[in-house]
Each structure stands twice: as C-alpha cells, then as structure tokens.
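User: Before I run my own analysis I want an independent prediction to cross-check against. Here's the chain; please return only the structure tokens and, at the end, one sentence I can use as a sanity check.
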Amino acid sequence: MQKILIIEDEVAIINVLKNILLDENKKFKIDTASNGQEGFKKATEVNYNLIICDIKMPQMDGIEVLEKSIEHGVEAPFIMISGHGDIETAIDCIKKGAFDYISKPPDLNRLLTTIRNGLNNQNLKKENKILRKKISIQDNMIGNATEMQKIRNIISKIAPTEARVLITGENGTGKELVAHSIHKQSNRHKIPMIEVNCAAIPSELIESELFGHEKGSFTSAHKLKKGKFELADQGTLFLDEIGDMSLSAQAKVLRALQENKITRVGGEKEININVRVIAATNKNLKEEIKNKNFREDLLHRISVIPIKMPSLKERVEDIPLLVDYFIKVICQSHGVTKKIVDNKAIILLQKYSWPGNIRELRNIIERLIILSGEKITANDVKLHV
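Assistant: Structure tokens:
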C-alpha cells in the first residue's frame, strides 16, 4: 500500500486532494497534517511514498518543512503547492529538493501526472537502493583467515596492472567475488565487467558467444551479433569455468590474447580489442592438459597471476564471521529480526566438512533462519544440516 501525506492548512483543499487521490487509486493510504510542524513530525516518523505540501502555512512554511525533512533523511518526493505561485518560487522549490511544484487551484491532469511521476520516481529509487545493496553484498569478501589476507594483499597489488589472472578452487569458494574485486580496484572499473560462464554455453555456440557472428553465418544468425570480447573492449572479461571450453574455442581465445584481435564467426574482418582477461576454473588444468582437454599454451597466457581460493574447511576460523554476515543479510532480505546463534551451534558448523563450501553455508544458514526459533541452537544444526 502506497502512503501519501498531505500537509495543508485549508480543510477544503485537503478534501479536494484526498478525493482526487482516492479516485486515482482506492488503495492509497492518505494521512493529513494541518500545519508545517505537524507535517514535519509525520514526514520524519512515517516512511511515506509521496508528500504533497502547501508553501504558505502558519508555524512553519512549506519550504522549511521541505528543507528540514531532507536534512533528516526523508526520501519521499515532495510536490509543493501554493496559491501565490510564480516562476521564482517554483525554481526555488526545485533547487531545494522538491520533485515538482504546482499552483493552486491545481489542474487535475497536471496534478495526477505529477503524482504518478513522483511515485514512479520513488519506486526507481528503492529499486536502485536494493540493487546497490545486492552489488555490495555480491562483492563482499568476508574472512580474516591467513589465506584470505594473502589473497586480499595479492588483489591490491595486481588490480591496477594489466596482468591476466587465473583463479582456481572448488565450486562455491568465491572465485567470482575475487574477479569482481580485481575489476573494481582496476583502472578499467568504469566499464562493467563482462562475464561468460563457459560451462553453461553449448560447445557449438561458445565461439559465437565469445567472438560474435555476422548475419547469415549460420541458420539462426538473423542479424549481426557482437561477442563478449568485443563488448568488453577497454574493460574486463571474466571467463568463468574456462576448463570446460572446447579446444577449438581455446585456439581462438589464444589468438585473441596473442594478437589483441578477433574475427566474428562467418566474418573476415579483424577487429582490434583491448581486453583484460580474468579466468576461473574448478578443474586442475595441468591434469586437463595431460588428458588433451586443455591447451598448455593457453594456460601460460591466462595464468600470469595464479590465485587459489581455499575451501571452507581450510578456513574454519572464518565460519563465525560468515555466519554472522549471512544471518544479517538473509534476515534483512526476509524482513525478520536478526537471529542469534548459540556458540555450540557454531562449533558444530565448524566441524562439518562443507563439500559445497561458502555457497552451501549460505544455503544452510537460510534454512536455519526459516526453520529455527528466535535462536539458532545446536539442536537446530543437528536437525537441519
């Protein structure tokens, strides 16, 4: 339910605005305040989706309500209204943070359009905030174990360089987080990192995915398509699960890294590229080379800087930190109070072997949050892990 606050000292105007809003959407929850002080108090105590505020009011005028509300962290868009409207007043309101300004008596269509835009703007802000939280969560490397400290130190040294990096380790150890961290600290961070999961793309399509294709180059190639190398130009390309890449695609990747040029499937023109490659795999590439599944010359090209991610059982001292972090994030996403974990439960979690590593730990913590009471106990762990 969307909540709207009307701050207005004229009862007749309040009634008109309420009727307009309820005609627009019966589900709007509308609060009112008859003066600036009351309006400011409500604006700072309730999380409104929109605030409609008169300018000329006793005790505290609308401009002061607007300024003080913004100072106190109110994020709801303000639509300012006044019967003494002029261009200067409107400009002053916008400069001070108002979403829009409308003169009295308000034009119905103009008012409704402004309200819709204001509510849409608020929704976009919320979505962006959620997205930023997800990104920060995604890139957060938790842990103080010696191996993790070494990895952070390596990242800080190599990130500003152009060196290619190969990240190895079991599934669920956080290889993607390392790639994101390197990119974020690099000189290429302004361009989004392009990611390719080589294991998820059929072998017959991997070359088109990486290098693009010309229109008509094969049956379903109805239009020209740029590949990931081309899209990552001047930025970073993350080749996840590179050990699953076909040998023919490996040969083309090797050429691209050697010459900084690619050719689209079905094309003849060479395209210059400037791409930093970060690769990751859960496979032993030296064994894959022995089994003739991976090119040795490509391994040398991609592993200028090798980083091996430790398994969770190699860093059990980080489990309390990871548990606390996941509880905070998951409880927040579920909208529940942060749960407490019994020390005996932590000890049991540290004794578990964690074949799925950190990814498995996160899933287990979510399960425990949902199925346990106010406190996660050792008995909960025995029942659900």
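Sanity check: The chain has three domains: 3-136, 146-310, 313-384.
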